[in-house]
Amino acid sequence: MGLYVNPELLQWFISEYILRYNTKPDMGKSCIRFKKTDKLPLQLLGDLVQKITATEWINCYEKQLKR
Prior knowledge:
single chain
């Protein structure tokens, strides 16, 4: 979950979620919870997916392992 190893991306997601949906996202360790499928924030999730590539995520993950 790239959000948790990239503080800037996490802050962006939380801010955008609040801005678009007027509530904080229901998040836990490595997850974002959605209670109803008809309320999935598809546009926001699409924007999130575009913000980090698989290679960037792997690099973040490997940096965390080296700590």
